[in-house]
Design brief:
Two copies of one chain form a homodimer. Chain A is α+β, with helices and mostly antiparallel strands. Helices cover about 15% and strands about 25% of the residues of chain A. The longest helix of chain A is centred in the first third of the chain and has 12 residues. Chain A is globular, with a radius of gyration of 20 Å. Chain A starts with a helix and ends with a strand.
Chain lengths: ~325, ~325
């Protein structure tokens, strides 16, 4: 069995890794050993379920997106909830795919010659550019940083010991986060593989949330703080990443026939109980996640000769798992 | 026109950016303004041309791979030249594709139940693990580091001023490179999007070069120094990145029917003159490449509100362009 196969197996067969107590830990064995108490339920209300038209072979294509929790990007996410509840995306399409960059969907808002803009529902709000960043609260009693996740709720920020090329890497509530390294006391969600963001026109427009994109390549961190991250694909990213690349201007499909129709996008809690997606993420302030990062940064299991000595923020995705009913 | 469109346009229409002298530079405008003297020809002998079977719509699929120059990975690259000259890959297939990881091809060497191993040609050499890294020469007269590219030829290493999460980022002869940050005096090629590497069994096996993979996701830098990087895809990576993901063990296709047949893989200089691929790369020790990195790290053109303040080694691909005959 070749290395690459082993590496991939370690992503899909945690039990296999767990079975070998004597070998050095792998990211998968650490995740598999995490106690139930370190797994957090993702509320179905925070999941967007996108049904694409079946592929050429007739296979269904479902993409599940987790929306960021408060306080991040809530203005855009409010719009996204309104759009999903209105079924606004139903009948729109994935109209633009650029290799190592993004897959983008919606109605095209007139930019795509093959589609025309679609009127937005009422009460879609304009969101200010200031919402790209979030203030950080310093906890005087313990010196830790926090973000306020509700009127009387806060989440601790866990700063990463691993170097980031762009800012201070951190995690909060199951999400990778960047912190201002110049003492600005701000934090912002980051563009990693699978991140979902809000396409926009030129400043001061910040986009409504009607036109969304998912990152399908190397993390384009230069977009951080310049465009709103609203979530991440937790299942089915391959249905976007494998779409043919657009050959028209800016990677927009040259013809309508190339578009991938969107049958529907719904919030998870609006689906029938038996169709509601159930996912959990590994708490990012727990011992298991810290161990996961350490092992990602320094693989010592049998395949690896030379530990990397580091891991970048987007090369250690927060573990998310589907929970079978 | 939306930002994402603008961003993509900037990747395909350098002339447009150049036309606007008054606006801040973009990566594309810097590349477009680079003098001819800073572009280096890639010898056709250093290019592998892979012809995949046409896609479902009958479109041809050509993938062009540039092989690393001396002194990097030359043992494996020697094997790869032997295999290409023998037409060894003709009739083999892309048999494994894992999302955000790799697309892998060859004969499967028996690991894939749907294919059987294929005998290798004679004079395929075993390469030692020591070849994963390359010694660096310090130039006493100028304090710069160099790698020996031939018996009487050396290339200067340009150390990046931008922080890397794994090592010291650098470039040499048009390639991204990592340098030992612990004074070991060694350098090694890195796994960025599009990098091509040699699949292997467990240590001390280092692979022959018959089973290759291309990175189709976020840079898996943990593979650096653990598996041989032999080149990079300079054109056609989308033909690998869009292939359906394997559902069998470790992402190997569950059925033979899912494989993508490889019609042929040839060295560029073995093709008829009019079919030989002509590419150039931007010199990485020149002023234009330094400016390109600086602009990638701090976009100040109209779309960007907040410059990133950094750029990781794999988020600033070395510019490569096709030269029309």
């Amino acid at each position: 069995m070749r290395f690459l196969s082993l590496a991939a197996i370690s992503l899909v067969l945690p039990a296999a890794a767990l079975a070998q107590d004597s070998v050095p830990p792998t990211p998968t064995s650490v995740i598999a050993a995490a106690p139930a108490a370190e797994w957090r339920t993702i509320p179905p209300a925070d999941l967007l379920v996108m049904e694409l038209a079946p592929d050429a072979a007739g296979r269904t294509r479902q993409v599940v997106i987790q929306l960021l929790p408060p306080p991040f990007s809530q203005g855009w996410i409010g719009n996204i909830r309104t759009l999903a509840q209105a079924g606004w995306w139903d009948g729109t399409s994935v109209y633009r795919v650029v290799d190592n960059w993004v897959a983008q969907w919606g109605a095209g808002e007139g930019e795509d010659p093959a589609t025309s803009a679609k009127p937005l529902p009422p009460d879609i709000m304009a969101v200010p550019e200031s919402a790209y960043i979030t203030p950080v609260e310093r906890g005087p009693e313990d010196g830790r940083d926090y973000v306020l996740t509700g009127p009387d709720r806060r989440e601790p920020i866990t700063v990463s010991r691993w170097i980031d090329s762009y800012a201070i890497g951190a995690h909060v509530a199951g999400w990778p986060l960047a912190l201002d390294s110049e003492g600005g006391g701000t934090a912002w969600p980051v563009h990693c593989y699978g991140a979902v963001g809000v396409a926009r026109d030129m400043s001061p427009d910040t986009g409504t949330g009607a036109e969304l994109y998912a990152v399908i390549g190397h993390a384009p961190r230069q977009l951080d703080r310049n465009i709103a991250v609203v979530g991440r694909v937790v299942e089915g990213i391959e249905h976007l990443a494998t779409l043919s690349r657009g050959t028209g201007e800016a990677g927009v499909y040259a013809t309508e026939a190339e578009h991938t129709p969107i049958l529907s996008i719904r919030l998870g809690d609006s689906l029938p109980a038996d169709a509601q997606p159930r996912f959990e993420y590994l708490a990012t302030d727990g011992a298991s996640f810290a161990a996961y990062l350490a092992v990602k940064a320094n693989r010592r299991d049998s395949f690896y000769l030379q530990p990397a000595g580091g891991v970048d923020l987007c090369n250690a995705p927060v573990p998310v798992r589907r929970v079978e009913m």
